[in-house]
Amino acid sequence: MSTPEAPKIEFPCDYPIKVVGSAGGELHNLVIETMERHSPGFDQATITVRDSRKGNFQSITVTITATGETQLQAIFADLKDHPLVQMVL
Question: Which among 48, 38, 50, 41 is positioned nearest to 78, based on CA atoms?
Answer without folding.
Answer: 38
